[in-house]
Design goal:
This protein has 146 residues and is mainly alpha-helical. It is 69% helix and 8% strand. It has a three-stranded antiparallel β-sheet. The longest helix is centred in the first third of the chain and has 31 residues. The chain is globular, with a radius of gyration of 19 Å. The protein starts with a helix and ends with a helix.
Length: 146
């Protein structure tokens, strides 16, 4: 009997993690809507800004923990929107590097406010937040094995 209750609790916890992520993502989308930036694009802007240099597609894929094809599609859209530039080292080079444009830097500054995330996370004390981070890292580490 106890095994069944524990299994139900694990499923409930998994469901709550997913639901919470979904609701927080919706709140983040609402924050970003005035800037016409998606949360995924905001993440790429953050990474490019934090790296502080031109970055390759492979570097960005690694830093965002997304596949190269996914990041490439987002960067193509962001280049079209004037947020990033794509350059080659020279004409013959296959290696492309990406960097923020002036518009991209402004977009990053607007996206960096993260009002909804701050407000939602503020319901946790510092100690609770530390515990949450520790627990989520443990779960993430275990999930990476699969």
């Amino acid at each position: 009997m106890e095994g069944t209750i524990l299994e139900d609790m694990r499923y409930d916890a998994w469901f709550l993690i997913g639901r919470t992520r979904h609701l927080m993502l919706l709140a983040r989308q609402k924050d970003l809507r005035p800037y016409e930036i998606s949360p995924q694009q905001a993440h790429i802007l953050d990474v490019l800004y934090d790296l502080g240099r031109k970055s390759t597609l492979a570097e960005l894929a690694k830093e965002t923990e997304r596949g190269i094809a996914v990041v490439s599609t987002r960067l193509t859209r962001m280049e079209r929107d004037g947020l990033v530039t794509k350059t080659r080292e020279n004409r013959k080079s296959v290696l492309k590097k990406f960097d923020l444009t002036e518009k991209g830097v402004i977009a990053h500054e607007n996206c960096a406010k993260k009002n909804s995330i701050k407000k939602i996370m503020s319901v946790l004390s510092e100690e609770e937040l530390q515990q949450l981070i520790l627990l989520m890292k443990r779960l993430s580490s275990e999930a990476e094995k699969y």
